[in-house]
Amino acid sequence: MPEQSRGPRPTLEAVAARAGVSRATVSRVVNGGDGVRKPLVDKVLQAVEELGYIPNHAARTLVTRRTGAVAVVVAEPETRFFSDPFFSQQIRGISKELTAHDTQLVLLLVEGPGDFDRIARYLAGGHVDGALAFSLHTDDPVPAITRRAGIPAVYGGRPSWTADPGDQGVPYVDADNRGGARLAVRHLRDLGRERIAHIAGPADQTSATDRLDGYRDVLPDADPTLVADGAFTVESGARAMAELLERHPDLDAVFAANDLMASGALRVLRERGIAVPEQVALVGFDDMDSVAAETDPPLTTVAQEIEGQGRLMARLLLRALDRDRTGDGEAPESVITPSTLVRRASA
């Protein structure tokens, strides 16, 4: 047990005296510096434990030029963030990786355009070492903000560089959205379905446009009115399904660009007495357990490694931070993770 549970806070000098080393040696050890022999490191760590020494974070930041914190910027409002399990799964992966490297996660949400100024000030203020950003939209200024702040960044999802083409060197982690969509639509086609509709995600997000492109790869001659727009929410999926049934009451399959929209579509089909999959086969995208496995019938969907992508994002950023600190190593490169079809009862 540490000796000092009460009284003055132990100092570096006290640790140095206990370990029989210089104050500079203690500082290098507790701040993660190099160049200290292992026997001395062990003595310092033993003294730290015995005295209950807690490093001063502000002083450590001055010495190492590192805050030990990473910002996670999610370009979505609070209501969307807390209602979509995709975000919790990705944050879980990020948090696990950062925690394993003794790094704090700072969550920044975007309620509206005015929040970008707040986020820009925060990132430029020296509060974090780097940034992870996901759910980016075409017109989001986040890439430009992170570049101006002078901090390393990694993006979740392939960004659209329309708004900021100068930032194309930033690595990202994404699923094979286009390939996964092709898997979904081919599966429906192989089932003998002939009038396959698509509920698309927001046109200002590359994951949605890539999945729409995958649908069109398999069905290049499909009637454009077999595509309805959604917003990656349950409610938008229900609205889109109702629109599609009005346009094409004889449709026999639907590929929805995410599981939430698929669950909304399933609700409308049930309300109208349309049997799934007998009359209309349904496939989603994401394979979120809290959605896909809980629908009735359970949802056939395209799986992506959501939590794993979060861990990869954090890993790439930590690698970039180490490279900035040491000058060694290759710059991290973008990663595309595979997508796979998970067959359940809806198709």
Describe this structure in words.
There is one protein chain. This protein is an alpha/beta fold. Helix content is 45%, strand content 15%. It is built from 14 helices and twelve strands. The chain has helices spanning 12-19, 23-30, 38-51, 57-64, 78-83, 85-100, 115-124, 142-149, 177-190, 206-218, 234-247, 259-271, 289-292, 306-326; strands at 69-74, 104-109, 130-134, 153-156, 172-175, 196-200, 227-229, 253-256, 281-286, 300-303, 335-337, 340-342. The strands form two sheets. A six-stranded parallel sheet has the order 2-1-3-4-5-11, with helices on both faces. Strands 7-6-8-9-10-12 form a six-stranded mixed sheet, sandwiched between helices. Strand 8 (253-256), helix 12 (259-271) and strand 9 (281-286) form a beta-alpha-beta unit. Helix 2 (23-30) crosses helix 3 (38-51), helix 9 packs parallel to helix 10 and helix 11 packs across helix 12 (259-271). The protein starts with 11 loop residues before the first helix and ends in a 5-residue tail after the last strand. 43% of the residues are buried. The mean pLDDT is 88.
Secondary structure layout:
Blueprint: H1 12-19, H2 23-30, H3 38-51, H4 57-64, E1 69-74, H5 78-83, H6 85-100, E2 104-109, H7 115-124, E3 130-134, H8 142-149, E4 153-156, E5 172-175, H9 177-190, E6 196-200, H10 206-218, E7 227-229, H11 234-247, E8 253-256, H12 259-271, E9 281-286, H13 289-292, E10 300-303, H14 306-326, E11 335-337, E12 340-342
Parallel strand pairs: 1-2, 1-3, 3-4, 4-5, 5-11, 6-7, 6-8, 8-9, 9-10
Antiparallel strand pairs: 10-12
Helix pairs in contact: 1-2, 1-3, 2-3, 6-14, 7-8, 9-10, 11-12
